Amino acid sequence: MDLISIIVTYYNKIEFIKDTLKSITSQSFKNFEVLIIYDQKNSDDYDYIQTLIESDPRFKLLNNKNNFGVSHSRNIGTTLAKGDYICFLDADDLWDIDKLNIQLS
């Protein structure tokens, strides 16, 4: 079965991230990994995100040492991705439950 790597870049979207991550875990297609690239300096949001994902081994939270911006952060995620396919999701966006199934087919 194909593996999809989902790359989520995060910068200052604390009020949206919980729903964004829920839209990933609610997918009808379940064979995915999620690389969250944390791209801001303070660690308060980082700790919150860590609590949201700690029970799901498909999620990895990676902390940029500097603020690189969305393009560079996506490139970091792409380099680390192990999936057969890669897709991007912004930290303040939501997906339909069948998004990955539809796109894969």
Task: Please describe the topology of this protein.
Elements: E1 4-10, H1 14-25, E2 32-38, H2 44-53, E3 59-63, H3 70-80, E4 85-90, H4 99-104
Parallel strand pairs: 1-2, 1-4, 2-3
Defining traits:
single chain; 105 residues; alpha/beta; four-stranded parallel β-sheet; 4 strands
Description:
The protein is of the alpha/beta class and 105 residues long. Helix content is 37%, strand content 24%. The protein contains four helices and four strands. The protein has helices at 14-25, 44-53, 70-80, 99-104, and strands at 4-10, 32-38, 59-63, 85-90. Strands 3-2-1-4 form a four-stranded parallel β-sheet, sandwiched between helices. Strand 1, helix 1 (14-25) and strand 2 form a beta-alpha-beta unit. Helix 1 (14-25) runs parallel beside helix 2 (44-53). The model has no long low-confidence stretch (mean pLDDT 96).
